[in-house]
Amino acid sequence: MPAALASPKTLRLQYFNIEGPAEKSRLAMRIAKIPFTDDRVDFAKWPSEIKPTTPYGQLPLMHVDESHTIAQSDAILRYVGGLSKTLYPADVETRTAIDEALSLVDEMNQSWYYALVAGMNPAKLGHDVEKGSEEHGAVTKKMRERWMADEFPRYAGFLTKRVEGGKMLVGDAVTIADCAVIPLLRRFCSGDVDHVDPTCMSQFPEVKAYYDRFHAIPEVAAWYEERAQAQKAA
């Protein structure tokens, strides 16, 4: 049975000044009280200064003791979970249950990805429309409204079965699976995504209650209060 990983002297999580795929590891480290440097990269420096230094031309990156890096957000999350005794426990049965939940979250993310990218980079999905044009707006609206009407209820139903009765995604304890799904739900509730109703979770009270339970965790509440203050000061 694998033991918990040895604690590094320093951790530096490098990503942009948005939540994105780094947020799940930020949450995990805050909940587990693992010290880390939250290195938020300037978008202007990314293409020429930072991107060429990354293994796959992507962020986030985790810098461990400034001696080696971990790429890919899921690998980073599992590494952080391995530093904790509770977020990603060592026993095989529990880890398998967590991995199952993580796969569900990843499937939901991948399903949503196409509707998201339709608004950001339509050519990437093969849509022959000019970005910012009326036709582009129509494609984005159609894809996102269809996803929210068809796919969001389906995935919310899956989540409901896992969290009903006051549970987290895997039993009663918080795990890295919860840290993975919450940033996705936050995006839907943000009011910042065109054609996505920020009250969408009101139709799924068990999921909404779960969302609120997670945000009520003291370390999580403190994290988002700090981020709100940082945004005001920026």
TrEMBL record:
Domain GST C-terminal: 91-234
Domain of life: Eukaryota
One BP term from GO: glutathione metabolic process
GO molecular function, one term: glutathione transferase activity
One Pfam family recorded for the sequence: GST_C_3
Domain GST N-terminal, chain residue ranges per copy: 9-88
Protein name stated in the entry: Thioredoxin-like fold
Source organism: Ostreococcus tauri (Marine green alga)
